Every structure is written in structure tokens, then in C-alpha cells.
From TrEMBL:
Classification via Pfam families: OsmC
Listed name of the protein: OsmC family protein
Coiled coil: none
Highest taxon listed in the record's lineage: Bacteria
UniProt cross-references to Gene3D superfamilies, sorted A to Z: 2.20.25.10, 3.30.300.20
Amino acid sequence: MKARVQWMGPEQMSFVAESESGHALVMDSSAEIGGRNLGPRPMELLLMGLGGCSSIDVVLILQRSRQQIRDCVVELNAERAGEDPKVFSRIHLHYVLSGKGLDEKRVERAIALSAEKYCSASIMLSKTAEITHDYEIREDA
């Protein structure tokens, strides 16, 4: 996997990040160090990446176990260390899953498999952060 990050030039702390798959986004820093709020902060991207990685796993696992999942939202809440390097120290993922007749045991298993086996981001971040999970299931009408 490759990526490229290029500074957008003097008088700012904005960068364009390009992925090997051909996608690009702008990252920025806080105003205190010259940012202009043009994009997410790099640590925000790490947190969003964790949410995306785990969501993909959970949805795929539930679909493969023939669950009628219609929606998956994961809300993440993270705390960072107070001193440099300000790594994530705690991360909580709250899954909100919607569908018809979702089996609670299968939902629990899908989340556990993501956290413990499949989600590279979760496994990597768990080296510095305590990662916890919970969920709610909403029945579709």
C-alpha cells in the first residue's frame, strides 16, 4: 500500500493526501499552528478509518450470516494522552444497527470478530488504546 501527502504551501498547514487507489482529500491542522480548517485533522482520519474498517467487517459478517441488515452507523468517542505523543488512550465504538429480525448473538459475534480478528485498524490501535464496544439494534418496520 502506498500514499502520498503534499504540503499545500507557505502560510498554511494544509496537505493533500492521495491514496494508491486514486482518491484524494485535504488534511489540515488546528488554527493555533496555522491551519485553516480546510479538512479533517490526521488523528480524526485515524479514528474515522477505525470506524470504516470495523463497519465493513460487521456488515459483511452479518450479510454472510444471512442477517437482513439495512443500516450500520458507528459512533466513535476517543480520548488522547495528555502529553506527546498524544496517542489515543481510549476509544469507544457504539454501533447502531438496523434491519429485520437481527439476531443479537450474531451482532455480538460480528463485532467481536471485527475487533479481535479482522479489523487491522482496531488491532493496531489497541496497542496504545483501550478499545470498547457496545451496540443497539433497531427493528425496521
